[in-house]
Protein 1
Amino acid sequence: MADSSLQPKLSGTDSLAGLATRLAVRAGLGVGLLGVIWTVGLQLTGNNGFGPKQIMAQMLVPLVAVANEWWLGQQLKPEKPGLGRSLKVGLLTVLIAAVVSGLGVLGLAYGAGETALARNRAEVTEIVRVQQLENSKVKQSEAQIRQQEQNVVSMTTPQGLAISTFERILLFGLVLAVPGGIFFRE
């Protein structure tokens, strides 16, 4: 039989910090994996897994972060989570989801191959050209047009797609997680 006195005893503060971390890790991994599954599903069904439909899953991250902040408050009742714990659970959820999603897109980009990346590149290039035509008030030089085309090529590499996904999720997540953490601190 194991002696329970050998087990480390957590103080109330340590277990509360552990609760916030556990909630954030679980939710961040869950919503990050859900985004990866969505992206892979798009790719497998013949859609552009790197295109605008990807944003539908990425918008779940800030909602899950806010829900996680609320859930932390429910778990701690009647005690209040406070600003630090509430922000910690929201921001950590967003960060973990962004890392998982970015790595998932990187893996998918390498797994899908150059043909999928070329198709995505063609779609993005077409969007840029249409926007240039619609915005006829601004005349762009040939150098500016070439620079935009070069930017499209660099952002549609596997690394560019992964960084873009990471940044977008982080931005979307912070927009709601920070105010949510402030609101749910009580």
Note: Confidence is low (pLDDT under 50) at residues 4-11.
Protein 2
Amino acid sequence: MALVAQDIYTLEELKSIIGSGVAYRVRLHGVESLEEAITMYRTLDDAVQFRGWACPQLNKLALVAGIAAEVDRVIDELVPSLLEDDENRVLMLLLKNAAWSIRNNGKLVDADAGGIFRVRMHPIANRILKAVRLFLTARSTPTGRRDRLHAIVYDLKIFRESYYLPIP
């Protein structure tokens, strides 16, 4: 069976063709936001594995979905736990690892995407790393730690919800 070529720009477009019964060769152009990346990846990966679809950009989308998962983990798990116990060194190291993961996966995506993650995500990852460094060296007050954590969450939420991310 021949695959039908289809350009996809949004999650809604992907959802609109998912139940059609036609096998597609999807050319993915981007993700509306990090919020949609995980859903788009799961939907498209399912179609590739079980419906015979093809998508050359699926690996890049997997990296973007990984970044989205790390951002969600920082926002929903790590920062709230640190706000409760702001001297927990294990949580601080997990936050540091998440920042490096976001940064390194962003570099892999950026190799073909024209630097969008470097421009938008590296400053946030650098702020997280600086905050952890200050926390671990005890050069920050409890109020200063809380303020930095709230600022990091604010920046991550804006990034997660606001930016169109091209998938080369």
Note: Residues 4-59 form one domain.
Protein 3
Amino acid sequence: MQNITKIVIKLALLPLTLSFGISAQASQVPSQWYFGKWDCSIDRRPAKMQWLVVDDPQTSCSGGVCSSSSGVKVVGRFSDNGSAWVPLSKNYLRGNDFGIRYQGAEPDNWFLRYNPSTKVASGWTTWRNNKYPLQCTWRSR
């Protein structure tokens, strides 16, 4: 009987949920080891990397009727030696191995392997088919 009561209450609340909206917030996303701000060294030059979870609301309209939804997305970016921020995207994440897509003027694939005991990720970048060392130390969320 208690299970039936719970189901009835949930069904009764469903229209309220749909009309008032329940939105996802960036703080509700399960964390990954690479999320946050990193101090890096790329081929012995100082650099910074960030992977941040941000709110991503969407609105679409058709025939004068609009609908909105809430969501979140992960945004990556990289700054080499104080230069402008360049977008990054996640190619893959397999445990502590992280494949990154650098999306600058000459897009390329990067790799980092994270050591949770030191909070350091080491790997490489590529540029014009050459690999360069990349090491990043986790700074904060």
Note: The longest helix spans residues 2-20.
